[in-house]
Amino acid sequence: MATNGENGRHQEVGRKSLLQSDALYQYILETSVYPREPEPMKELREITAKHPWNLMTTSADEGQFLSMLIKLINAKNTMEIGVFTGYSLLATAMALPDDDKILAMDINRENYEIGLPVIEKAGLAHKIEFKEGPALPVLDQMIEDGKYHGSYDFIFVDADKDNYLNYHKRLIDLVKVGGLIGYDNSLWNGSVVAPPDAPLRKYVRYYRDFVLELNKALAADPRIEIGQLPVGDGITLCRRIS
Ligand code: SAM
Ligand code: CA
């Protein structure tokens, strides 16, 4: 892992946390997260750890946070954009009451199918409607239909960062007043404050500008209240107020 010296903070991709030290993050995981992690989530986390793109998965502490959040707001109708092997999807499915639903979208069905047996074994597959393909046209179709305005309690966005603002334009219509949208990776590996000459990986550098633009736009959007949390790689919660 690369660090920038003195305070041991990371600069490079490879960490799941923005905390001061690895030891502190490990402490959180071992003390508060892993002992309470439901068995299916543990199983899916271990399966995903063997995937070559395992860096994309939601971290266990963020999974625990999402689960708590969904219960606190009493969410029923939810959406997820960006599923990968389904760790955050499973956290959502476990937190929702039995007759509630998740519309889950990803361009890659193969990865979703890696986690699907775990979701099925946990008896949760009936809550999920998975759509393979880019999310944007699905959102456009839903808006055109007119049936889905203000119908979502919770929407978790964890996909192509260069489309987050395009998602926001549509999701603000689909989430209900009082409902929440969570934009994940909103601190983008800490790169939002990296100096211009910082040795960032290519894809970190590319998406960074979109994340910076998103954060500014959300902070200036009068239709929402926001909360920026340093959980995982940063999540910005947006509560629709008008
Ligand atoms: N939430 C997931 C988890 O808990 O493991 C992680 C999602 S991963 C960071 C990002 C996902 O977004 C990838 O699986 C990728 O295939 C998907 N994706 C990328 N572009 C997309 C698009 N235009 N529409 C829907 N999904 C997309
Ligand atoms: Ca993420």
Automatic annotation (TrEMBL):
Alphabetical GO biological process terms: circadian rhythm; lignin biosynthetic process; methylation
Top enzyme class: transferase
Listed EC numbers: 2.1.1.104
Keyword list, A-Z: Cytoplasm, Lignin biosynthesis, Metal-binding, Methyltransferase, S-adenosyl-L-methionine, Transferase
Pathway annotation: Aromatic compound metabolism; phenylpropanoid biosynthesis
Catalytic reaction list: (E)-caffeoyl-CoA + S-adenosyl-L-methionine = (E)-feruloyl-CoA + S-adenosyl-L-homocysteine + H(+); (E)-5-hydroxyferuloyl-CoA + S-adenosyl-L-methionine = (E)-sinapoyl-CoA + S-adenosyl-L-homocysteine + H(+)
GO molecular function: caffeoyl-CoA O-methyltransferase activity; metal ion binding
Subcellular location: Cytoplasm, Cytosol
Gene3D superfamilies linked to this entry: Vaccinia Virus protein VP39
Pfam families: Methyltransf_3 (PF01596)
GO CC, one annotated term: cytosol
Family recorded in the similarity comment: Belongs to the class I-like SAM-binding methyltransferase superfamily. Cation-dependent O-methyltransferase family.
Record's function text: Involved in the production of floral volatile phenylpropanoids in flowers of fragrant cultivars (e.g. cv. Mitchell and cv. V26) from cinnamic acid, a common precursor with the anthocyanin biosynthesis pathway involved in flower pigmentation. Methylates caffeoyl-CoA to feruloyl-CoA, also able to methylate 5-hydroxyferuloyl-CoA.
Protein name: caffeoyl-CoA O-methyltransferase
Organism annotation: Petunia hybrida (Petunia)
